[in-house]
Amino acid sequence: MTFDASYLRYWGKSRKTITTGDNYHLLVYHCLDVAACGYVMAIENRFGMGAVLAELGLSSSEDYRWINFFFACHDLGKFANGFQRLAVHPQSPLVKPAAGINTPARHDTLGFWLWDKLEIDWLEGQRDIFPAVPPDQSDDFVYALDIWMAISTGHHGIPPDKPDDRCATAFTKQDIHAANEYFTVLCDLFTINNFPDEWKTKAWRKKLKQHSWFLAGIMTLADWLGSDENNFSFNSQPMPLAEYWHIACEKANKALSTLPHASITSRYDGHQALFPFIDSLTPLQQRAANLDISPTGPQLIVLEDVTGAGKTEAAMILVHRLMSAGKGRGLYVGLPTMATSNAMYQRLGKAYRKLFSDAARPSLVLAHGARHMSTAFRQSVWQTDESQDAYYAQNDASAVAECNTWFADSRKKALLAEVGVGTLDQVLMAVMPFRHQSLRLLGLHDKVLILDEVHAYDGYMVKLLEGLLWFHAAQGGSAIVLTATLPATLREKLLSAFAEGAGFAAANPSVDAGYPWLSHLSSTGLQEYPLQTRQEVKRCVAVNWLSDVEHALEIIYRVVEAGQCICWVRNTVDDALMVFLRLLNDGKIAQQDLLLFHSRFAYADRMAIEENTLAWFGKDALPEQRRGKVLIATQVVEQSLDLDFDWMISDLAPVDLLIQRAGRLQRHIRDTQGVCKSSLPDERHSPVLHILAPEWQEEAQDGWLGETLRGTGYVYTDHACLWRTQKLLRQYGEIKMPEMARTLIDGVYEAKIPAPPGLQRIEDNVLGALLSQRAAAKQNLLQRDKGYHRDASDFLWDEGREFSTRLGEASVDVYLAWLDSDRQLQPAVNEGEFRWEMSRVQVRASWWKQNMSRLSLPDDDLLEAFRKRQHRPAAQVLLVSEQREAAYYSKRFGLGAC
């Protein structure tokens, strides 16, 4: 057949080398491949697509012609000669490169410009891109068509840029004519003879904008599927589009058949399916099992209870009940750190399958930056073959490459799998202007979110979390928040954000909330429930004050002499190092009984220390393993590790962190010898938390922390918070949980006690910083009602701007290495997998800048070669011996000891 149609003279996919078949795929064929994938996803209701379209009034296969049409327009920008010249096929009948043509933008933005051009010509009567639509109706549908086209052309994970006159330089008149002709044929192919009347209304367009985020994710996924050459082989032979459409649909059915279907949820018949080891439910778990979840629409459940109350199990019971009732099809668990994510991944691995039918094979994936170092997770991930697709400009990413990267990257894949576990950051990115955020939102659609340890976040992340809850509720999703200690204002913010997103009446939580406490927000309003606490997890820890390091050391020596174990939690690495070296130099405690644990270790050394820490102080540690052992640590022991110390010392810290640390003090029930028991009483001495703090100053001034805790003042900048913590704990003399939880948390964080005038300036600065953090977070949040459009971001999705899910000082990745005889860098960890990653230490950028002059570093050429080889453009390398030792680094001390 000859090239009678001008639109058949443009390639859509191309490659440099050819083995079998054609070496390019016609543009219109690729467009129909992608449209067919979208059509099949709608027919099969993949990812809930059919249900979303039904809300837009598109509920039949005939209605899905609109998906066919708009998805088939996604690569309009490739009609640009400026794009076509990226791959020249001299012996083909394709269009030839034209003189004076530029490529001022990516093809997604070029496509949106071309649509705008054709639309303006249509409105002015110069073109007839919709031949069957009466001219007098064209103005009525422009706004709806623009929303659809932004979804379609913005298929590379970011909305297209606004039309710019410079884009005209990428097109010839022939290109625009070919696109116009393509439109005409599409209208005939998909019977586009009129537009639905509701598309004229503001109410419907608002609904389309709200769903545009979901549809943009579907569009991207359809493009990835339709770009897979394994299913859509290249075809350069011309044929009528109606004929190729049938071919594309057959291939799309095959492509979709390779993706796992959604697993069927199992029926909830009690907690035993998930947790057969639980004979008797805790009060919190009992409430979770009986809570009325019948209201329609999204639901937010906030669980506040002490450590050991079984919050995770209670949340999973709620998840199973919600899913069984058709109120969710999966879940994602978001946690503060990679370490807590890894621990939860292991826990969920034992239970998550029971959420689904016996015949199902649901996926459980781990989502954070270091997931590739998890052997268990690596074995669970499948990857597609890499494509040969080429000839793309450097900033014009191939859909196949993105597809392969994404499917191998759990941080995105986790949100499409039925069950995902990872850091909170992965879901916060769904509501921020990150590339492919729409895919993350697609993954969250119809999932239950579990957000654990929300008390661990600063003002910036809390505001982002509010935005996430708003977005998730607006999508109809439910969420469960878990926390041990939650200030009243934070609870109110989370409830209010969810209520607003869901369209509920304002939530007005009780000002006299007890503890433990369950808050349940639904379409019927806010219900709040006081909870009981099991005797086994009630805690009463006496507080003793220390004013200098010498007293703390005396306590350590007495504990060791008595054959017991102790931990001192210091607030800075340098302070921890100082005490550890002092204990070593004093020589009163055997070196093999001393352990230092902080964040400035190479990953391999840190994992070894963590393993040793659990062996000495974990639940199953034997008396002979615990006897006379001393751990000097930083905040790394506050979360995720199940540790149990006979005695504890802590530097002064905010009250919620002291409660967290005290939770590791006599955490499990033991007899006098240190053997773990199943029931009370604990036969050890009454627990005491010794707190190193300055002498009490009722009228504290700036600098009141003194030289001993000077580092503490840098870490915890809200000195009024520290002062209130000391005042309240001096007043009560104990931490009694759960009875004193509200008194302590709200007493410190609700500023019920006025700060002394000498600290007022510092408190004002902290408040100003908090407000600034929240303002910055608000700017970084997307505005859902503006739809999938550049205007939805205050920064117009500026790709040159770095967005972050966390504030705080920048960090530097430092890789420990030694020079071999050929003066080549070798990783300090010389065995096992991921040797370079296992040799990595992360430090504060200011620490590196301050200390790098006294460290041994490779020359600039070696460093640059390393950065290129490891794809780490900002990495630093620190030279050590082949045994991983230096004056400034030791497997025992970490980085910083000289």
Question: Nutshell version of this structure?
Answer:
With 898 residues, the chain is an alpha/beta fold.
What report would you give on this structure?
The radius of gyration is 31 Å and the shape is globular. The longest helix has 25 residues. Helix 1 packs across helix 9, helix 6 runs parallel beside helix 8 and helix 18 runs parallel beside helix 19. Strands 5-6-4-7-8-3-9-10 form an 8-stranded mixed beta sheet, sandwiched between helices. A 7-stranded mixed beta sheet has the order 13-14-12-15-16-11-17, with helices on both faces. Strand 15, helix 24 and strand 16 form a beta-alpha-beta unit. The protein has 898 residues and is of the alpha/beta class.
What is the topology?
Layout: E1 11-14, E2 24-26, H1 27-43, H2 49-55, H3 65-71, H4 81-84, H5 107-123, H6 138-153, H7 173-189, H8 202-226, H9 241-257, H10 283-290, E3 300-304, H11 311-324, E4 330-335, H12 338-348, E5 364-367, H13 375-378, H14 399-407, H15 410-413, E6 419-423, H16 425-428, H17 437-444, E7 447-452, H18 459-474, E8 479-483, H19 488-502, E9 517-522, E10 525-530, E11 539-546, H20 549-561, E12 566-569, H21 573-586, E13 594-597, H22 603-617, H23 623-626, E14 630-633, E15 647-651, H24 655-662, E16 688-692, H25 710-715, H26 719-732, E17 734-737, H27 741-749, H28 757-780, E18 811-819, E19 825-827, H29 835-838, E20 840-844, H30 845-851, H31 860-870, E21 876-879, E22 889-890, E23 894-895
Parallel strand pairs: 3-8, 4-6, 4-7, 5-6, 7-8, 11-16, 12-14, 12-15, 13-14, 15-16, 18-21
Antiparallel strand pairs: 1-2, 3-9, 9-10, 11-17, 18-19, 18-20, 22-23
